Amino acid sequence: MSAYLLAGLTYGFASAVQPGPLTAFLISQALTSGWRRALPGALAPLISDGPIAILALLLLSTMPAELIHWLRLLGGAFLLYLAAGAWRTWRRYDAAMATATRSGEHSLLKAATVNLLNPSVYLGWSLVLGPLLLRGWSESPANGIAVVASFYAAMVACLAGIVLLFHAARRIGPAVNRALIGLSAIALAGFGVYQLWLGVLAR
Question: CB count, 10 Å around CB of 81?
């Protein structure tokens, strides 16, 4: 189970600290409306990801095992692509660009809508989380639960941390966020290699 816990934590952390619509929205809310209004938005993935996860799992469960192996390889390549993007973002990080988004009244529903319209969520569940969850569940239901629970625990905790960080320290916040993006590049690369190894091993 420890391998699945580590995989979920790694991908959850990397997903949370990557520049994206939800992270930008939460940062903007933290800077303009304060942490009390922005913090509930960290729970948005728990609301928006449910239908996406169900759809991805239904499609994956009807696929031949051979195609699942290829999806795992594709997922590993996708993670390496994200790692390269994170590395490029780290090199030319712009705090103003990372925090620029339209301001407005915060609501958990709005944050969930932002996340629901994020293509990365669909790709993540189709190429990474879905295959990993099915593999873990086939070995033991506890492994499958460990993947999902650790992923969302890490994601929600990191999103909440980013909200508090940018609210409390506007000058320090961007520098710390840049460091987190650098760490996420390393984490994504390692997790991508792990996914590729699983795909090759299963063939």
Answer: 12
